[in-house]
Amino acid sequence: MTRRQRRMLFVAAASLAAIGIVVLMLQVFQQNLMYFHSPTEVVAGKTPEGARFRLGGLVKTGSVQRESGTLKVAFRLADCEHEVGVRYEGILPDLFREGQGVVVTGKLAGGGEFVADEVLAKHDENYMPPELAESLQTDTGHSCAPFKSLETL
Amino acid sequence: MIAAAGHFALALALGVALVQFCVPLWGLYRRNGACLAVADPAARALFVIIACAFVLLTVAFLRNDFSLAYVATNSNTLLPVPYRIAAVWGGHEGSLLLWMLMLAGWSAAVALRGASLPADVLATVLAVLGGVSIGFLAFILFTSNPFELLPTVASEGRDLNPLLQDPGLIIHPPMLYMGYVGFSVAFAFAITALLHGRLDAAWLRWTRPWTAAAWMFLTLGIALGSWWAYHELGWGGWWFWDPVENASFMPWLVGTALLHSLAASEKRGVLRSWTVLLAICAFALSLLGTFLVRSGVLVSVHAFATDPSRGVFILAFFSIVVGSSLLLFAWRGHRIAAPVAFAMFSREGLLLLNNVLLVVAALTVLLGTLYPLLVDAMGLAKPSVGSPWFNLTFVPIMLPLVALIGVSYLVGWKRGRLQEFRRAVAPALVAVVLGLSLPLLVPGSQSLGVYLALILGGWAITTAVAELVRWLRLSRRPSRAIVGMCLAHFGLGVFTIGVTLVSHADVERDLSMKPGDTVLMSGYDWRLLEVLPVSGPNYDAQRGTIEVSRNGDLVARLYPEKRSYRSQPNNPMTESAVDVGITRDLYVALAEPLGEGAWSVRLYYKPFIRWIWVGALLMAIGGGLAATDRRYRLGRSLARDGLGDDLAATPGALS
User: Fold this and answer.
1) Among B55, B182, B339, B480, who pairs with B625 as Cys (CB 3.0-4.6 Å)?
2) Are B501 and B450 in contact (CB under 8 A)?
3) Alpha helices in B508-609 (DSSP H)
4) Rounded to two decimals, what is the model's pTM?
5) Non-local CB neighbours of B596 within 8 Å, separated by 6+ positions
6) Longest Cα pair distance anywhere in chain A, in angstroms?
């Protein structure tokens, strides 16, 4: 092989490898994307079946129930229109409390209940994830009223 | 008073920066030596003025001057003094002022050490730095002025976010910014090379120490951030692939590539325009990081800004700087390219491979960071990319890189010889033994991937030692650059081992415990003795006492706390407690009271996690050694005698 042929071969092999890697990466990328949905979308059945996704809303006042002696907890997550039951086992973040916004990650189980494996709460009292704040806005641009924490936005 | 003086200092600084930018460039255009000479004093003056502004803001914090909006939002009379000083950069406006102070500091350092540079080169470098300063000063003055007054003086401040009240915060941002901003010097040198259409060995020798110094600070900054997240967030994690972390990690990856391509360019005159492109990209990513973190598009403790005009300003500034640099590169880049052919099987070939891997790694991180933002911005959906994706793509790219390090010592410049590989047998054997035996210390870590990664980590360590020994035999005192390189590679090996073991074999248990309960986990007995109220200077807390023992012998007594800061009673904080060890950390966090005296408690067994930060620290020390190599000082005296020009025209003259 001449020097030129060798170089061509090298370039060809390198580009093939690069294309292969990119294709593989994009595939993995697609599989690992997670989407954000609101309780309304869950109730309307707009969420993908069997896939993990992120659900955001406000913890309904009076809905948090703990099983004594364990870390199991159940609560209802609501936006301005609908609510979804959430089950979780584990430690809740410092800022988790009723009436506040949280984002949970997990899957829908049977009976329209959401089983979460991760619960994230706001970083401080005045802060809310933008996507959550946005999904809680009504068409008129006002956030739904009963929740004090939204007024600061 | 402070507000007026600070405001005035910032405005004055903007004026000086304008002079530093415009006058030398005009002098360059008109070949006017007097105009060129303005750059040096302007850069020094700029530093003094910014330092004054910074001191003024610090004084405002120390004196609890709540007439300043920034002080009132980020401090409190109860805040201890060290945190009051750290609070200067605890918020958006002050952290930008710190950014600016660092930039002015680096510019002044270039001016100070630049006596040996040709006058026109020094003037251009400082002018470019002046241009960047203009952007940031305008940003501070027009959108984020820390000296803004409140309409009425506040009686009490809102306090620093409790998450940030930690020793880690005092040093993490300054280190990180030193790194970010340090790449502006390499960037300024790159733009200078393009403007002058000349890139020679002397240029490379000037650029290398600055890049190594910036890289050292960035490494330290990232490691400190990771350490802070580990013990402060209470989740026991050391890296989350959070967009904010990625924002600092991308410049690090490209900066690492730049360090290596600079070496290839200097030794063999190859990859020169590529080096310039990397220098531009490293700084562009630093700016992008600033944009991501400061514009409020991201969700994190770091995202202070909610004012959209700030985001627009940074984005515009970013586009101008990066766009014009890339245009300049497209226009003038060919002038500095040297058509030097080189073999793949040579040191420079392997350095190219190193660069490809690092840049691909940076691109995967960039994709994972920006894709969700772009999709969201187009209003299509709100996706997020989790850490599984980063782990799946990033690790396979990094492992070959770690393997490559040991090989690169064996392959000479110009052309490698296979006979040299005999030298690798002993290090390889030691690495295999190390890789196969380490999992014996850590239960639950036996898997093929773990063995492979550990052997590669061991390989990076043993080959670095072997290389250092070889240099010691060759010459009694190897240069600091060599020692630094070996130390950094050694550190990467240590880091790899730490990451592998802690990722595969850490044990986490969340459970409900009552005083008196004992749990067996990872061979240790964890016993909750009591939970009692305690008070700190500006908080009240519930403090738990947990005794960890092994086979009846007490190993550690840990005091995790649940704090409630008086200024923000609805914002409880988890203060974890850690028993630090070489081969494992024992980590306890109190989560919340469950009633009837029970608490939810989080226990962690973290094998070899200290190795991560020790490895990073070794890398940073290595970078520091390389930056202070004697050769660069020699290079200055060479340049002074006029010998520094175009040495690269005769490749090998330096090696």
Assistant:
1) B480
2) yes
3) none
4) 0.88
5) A68, B514
6) 79
